[in-house]
Amino acid sequence: MSDFIEKAEELALSGKFEEALAKYGEAIGEDPADPLTYVGKASILKALGRYAECADCMDTAIRILPEWKGADVDKASDLASMLLVLKAEAQLYAEKPEEALLTVDEADKIREADAASLVVRAQAYAQQKKYEEAGNCLYRAEEWCFLHDDAMLTQIWLSKVHIAKESGKAFAPPYAAEVYKSGNWRKPAGTGEELFERGNNLRGEGLLYDALRYYDACLAAGPENRALVLFFKGIIFEQLKNFTEAYSMYSDALAAGPAPEDELKIRVRWMNAKSLRL
């Protein structure tokens, strides 16, 4: 590592971004063929809100990467894909979702889509207010984490909550159903009471398939009020227009011996679902 880069990193850690930027400029003057120097400069430009320049820096890093003497041939394509995703992030900060999507397309041509590129793609769709497409990407990203590496799960969860709130309606994109059916998701843990409460919260946030996961885990844990958990599962299936499954849940809820104060509301919904099922 050159002295210029080391000093630039020290300045950046101290919040002295303009000075750090100048040092990266000196480092580039010393060795203009090192793509990682441009990546460092891009991170400073991003911190300064200069997103177009940040994207340009990433472009330069990607362009010179094949000729970089420090490149590992086996890992060069992975690095190029990662840099394209970082470039797309900068384009999102600049509120250019169309450009970001094109950049992510480039990344995915180099390497199959992973959680990072799927999250960026989801955010681009969300900026375009294409919430179903955004949701599909987030649930694909969650599935990728389950199958490969769960490092981004927290970010994905937060993105789901944010986009569900922004969409203003139940958040149940088609791929959420696929993931729920496949079981390719981390199984919730906790007591029956904790799982029930979390399921209720997720249902309130509009994350219907996530709520179903917690209700399923709650039922497996042996809840105190099994009938009520089944009832809430039935409500979700009603929201999903799956009246056959809703009818089944309400039937199970009635068979579970609900409390007198719950039985009437369960029976009313049971009758409604019975009339609407195919």
From TrEMBL:
Pfam families: TPR_16, TPR_8. It comes from the Archaea. Gene3D superfamilies: Tetratricopeptide repeat domain. This is Tetratricopeptide repeat protein. It comes from Methanocorpusculum parvum.
